[in-house]
Amino acid sequence: MPKKNSMPMKERAVKPRIVTGDEFLSAERCVAIHRIMVRARVMEERMIKMSKSGEGFFWIGGPGEEAFNACLGLQVKKGEGPAFDFLLLKYRNSAAMIAMGMELIDGVRQMAMRWSDPFSAGRNFTGHFSRKGWNVVPVTPVIEVQFVMAPGTALMQKRHGGDGVTIVIGGDAGSAEGDFASCLIWSTRPGNELPVLMLTTNNGFGISTSHASQHSCEHTTERGKAFGIPGEVVDGNDPVASWFAIERALRYCRSTRRPFMLEAMVSRLYGHSSSSGAPHSGEPDCLALFEERLLAAGVLDQAALDQVHEAAHAEVEAAVEQVAREAKPTAEDVQKFTYAPSKVDSVYPGDYTGLP
Ligand SMILES: Cc1ncc(C[n+]2csc(CCOP(=O)(O)OP(=O)(O)O)c2C)c(N)n1
């Protein structure tokens, strides 16, 4: 197990700060995390409106997971190829993508299914990210398949010899699928252990099915014990606890080249998706809780908080207006980019667009 409480020295010197137990984050870092959380929240809430106004389509996303995701995205070793981290995400990770540098307008483009959507050219649900330059593998609407892919990228990273790791993330309900078990098995073959960080965001539900009614163990991390995989459970509503849990987990995978399991207990603030109406659930809100702490510690005052929200609203409104003027994909575009063009395939040398 990685050692707890191992914050860098430079964090200790800065005041004011936000403290959880014996860990704390500097004011500068808290301000950066807070801004990401607000931008993610405002974007997602505007998307919910888009799903109801006809400006967009089906909505599913990450309100309630911003604290954990912002801390994750800021700690990724971002880049392309095996020397960097691979990300196999799900549909609630917008704050991680924003922390890595995603523009809000790109999230809005996918929500509005525009041809300009850089992740799927307007042919996939919102939150279904992909970005080759950042090793973000395409998110699929079919849940949990990312866990059976993770050992593949991690095996390549181990053979490469660097310190890149594979970060795979899924929900608590999805962990019931065989793909999750495959990841446990393939990342722990004796002599072939793999640098996979298995993340679960546990919101207590799979659509309308409660975790307690399906799982004999309280936490998915308990399943790692049979495979010798160490794990930790963290309050995903607390950015300080999340930051250091992620730091410990990543350090373990990077240095030992073995898997680690981290489970973040999170809220699902607007239900499963727009299909359930996306009403506010009243569960603990990581953003509101963090803002109370920022105010109490004197990191930001109310006027500064308001300014962050106003700027995020202005950014998203401008994005929605611009995206409304952008082109939608056409019927001819539907099957484009299904397969990469091939130099050696004489039947389909170009992009595959249907049987001859
Ligand atoms: C293989 C597969 N089975 C079922 C579904 C339908 N489905 C979509 S989301 C979901 C629940 C997922 O719950 P969880 O993994 O806990 O993630 P959460 O949405 O709560 O974040 C289900 C069953 C699917 N998309 N793919």
Q: Which descriptors apply to this entry?
A:
356 residues; alpha/beta; Rossmann fold; 6-stranded parallel sheet; two-stranded antiparallel sheet; 10 strands; globular; binds thiamine diphosphate
CATH class: Alpha Beta
Determine the strand fraction and express it as a percent band: 5-15%
CATH topology group: Rossmann fold
Structural class: alpha/beta
**Helix-residue proportion:** 25-40%
What value does the Rg take, in angstroms? Answer: 20 Å
Q: Give the N-to-C terminal Cα separation.
A: 55 Å
For the record, what is the CATH homologous superfamily label? Thiamin diphosphate (ThDP)-binding fold, Pyr/PP domains
**Most strands sheet:** 6 strands, parallel
Strand order within the widest sheet? 4-3-5-6-10-9
Low-confidence stretches: 9-14
Q: What's the SSE pattern?
A: HEEHHEHHEHEHEEEEHEHH
Number of strands: 10
Q: Outline, from the CA principal axes?
A: globular
Overall pLDDT level? 93
Ligands: thiamine diphosphate
Structural domains: how many: 1
The CATH architecture can be named as 3-Layer(aba) Sandwich
Helical stretch count? Answer: 10
Tell me what you see in this structure.
The protein is of the alpha/beta class and 356 residues long. It has one domain (9-269, 276-326): Thiamin diphosphate (ThDP)-binding fold, Pyr/PP domains (Rossmann fold, 3-Layer(aba) Sandwich). It has ten helices and ten strands. Strands 4-3-5-6-10-9 form a six-stranded parallel sheet, with helices on both faces. It has a two-stranded antiparallel sheet with strand order 1-2. The protein has a two-stranded antiparallel ribbon with strand order 7-8. Helix 2 (27-53) crosses helix 4 (94-100), helix 2 runs parallel beside helix 5 (104-111) and helix 3 packs parallel to helix 8 (239-256). It is globular. It binds thiamine diphosphate (TPP). Thiamine diphosphate binds next to strand 5 and strand 7.
